[in-house]
Input
Amino acid sequence: MSDRPPALALLAADGLTRHYRVRRPGAMFGRRDLLRAVDGVSFAIRPGQTLGLVGESGCGKSTTAKLVLGLAPATAGTVSFDGAPLPAIGTAAWRDLRRRMQMVFQDPLGALDRRLAVGWQIMEPLLIHRLAGPRDARERARAVMASVGLQPHHFDRYPHELSGGQRQRVVLARALITEPRLLVCDEPISALDVSIQAQVVNLLLDLQEKLGVSYLFISHDLKVVRQVSHDVAVMYLGRVVEQGEADALFRDPVHPYTRALVAAIPSPALGGERRRERIVLSGDPPNPIAVPAGCAFHPRCPWAVADCKAATPALRPMPDGRLVACHRAEATPESRAA
Ligand SMILES: Nc1ncnc2c1ncn2[C@@H]1O[C@H](COP(=O)(O)OP(=O)(O)O)[C@@H](O)[C@H]1O
Ligand SMILES: [Mg+2]
Output
């Protein structure tokens, strides 16, 4: 976050923005609308730590992930890794850096080559980046397979011969073999059976402890985000509306949107904590082509006042250090309702 010395950050995003021009449905003459997929997002991820990124589908999480990795060009804003700006996409310096920043997607089958035994796919990044010869690469593939809980005999298996959980372990092994310092995990467990989601989450936690790798962890499962994250950023329509230390944010969410998300977490996960007022999200689903004026959340906000329609709230620090973009952040639930 901005109040932390930048030298501490492994990855820092500053004002990251991605706008798309999209065709208006049914429009003639190729008229196009501006879609603000990501609109001025800033965060930092410290070495060995996890930033959880949450928000409803379409709020810009995957686009943010792509911008961080340099897989999509930013309309504005910067990304720096280890204190240096990300090199231009496609350059030799960028390719070199890419092995330090790897990605794990939602669908392991889609990420793997169906016609190639998984052991070879795990070795491949070492060969592509010329980090090892074939013999050495095979050895390191076997070692990284063991570290993600795969057996030696899995080396010669094809993706369709493995379970969903094993396939995601293969994807992780392939990502980890180049010894990345950052893994961008975009919904890494959403496609897995509920019964094996916990195993993969525990594996990610173990790997972080052993390797000191940082994660940008994207998920709509807030229970899991709470379990893995040191810090959390909540996105709404391309912007961060609340950001801060995970424990504090989940214990006492401030932004009405965060409160609604947290209130929707199945209650056993809340342990013995006091019940908070239940906010049910109502109103139209958010549309990034027609972002409401003022606070983008105001049409769905139970506490919106005239100001909220007139002026966009800045992301500003609260006494506990977290950042909140809400005009009424200081109001208590009681005074908001009044
Ligand atoms: N290549 C693209 N062209 C046009 N619009 C896009 C493109 N990629 C994403 N979008 C739009 O940007 C918004 C954010 O998408 P995305 O980052 O995938 O959200 P999330 O991952 O949070 O579900 C969505 O409205 C989506 O339709
Ligand atoms: Mg997504």
